Amino acid sequence: MDAALLRPGAGRTRRGDARERPHGGGRPGGRSRTGPRGLPRGNPHARPGDVADAGQDRGGAAGAAARDPDPPGRALGDAEGHGAVLQEDPLLSPEDRARALRRRRGPLGVRRSAPRRRHPLSGHRCRHAGHHARARGAPRREGPRDAVGPDRTRTDGDGALLSRRQQARVAVLGTGSWGTTFGKILADGGASVTMWARRPEIAAEISRTHRNSDYLPGITLPDGLSATSDLKVALAGASHVFVAVPSQTLRDNLTAIRPLLAPGATVVSLMKGVEKSTGLRMSEVIIESLGIDPGRVAVASGPNLALEIAREQPTAAVISSSRLETAQSVAMLARNGYFRSFVNTDVIGTEFGGVLKNLIAVAIGIVDGVGYGENTKASIITRGLVEMTDFAVARGAKAETLAGLAGLGDLIATCQSPLSRNNTAGRLLGQGYSFQAVVKQMQQTAEGLASVAPVLELAREIGVEMPIVEQVKQVLDGTLDPRDIAPHLTTDSDEPQGERTSDDSEETSGGPLRRTFKRAFDQLRNGRRGALGDRP
Ligand SMILES: NC(=O)C1=CN([C@@H]2O[C@H](COP(=O)(O)OP(=O)(O)OC[C@H]3O[C@@H](n4cnc5c(N)ncnc54)[C@H](OP(=O)(O)O)[C@@H]3O)[C@@H](O)[C@H]2O)C=CC1
Ligand SMILES: O=C(CO)COP(=O)(O)O
Question: Is the CB of 345 within 6 Å of ligand 2?
Answer without folding.
Answer: no
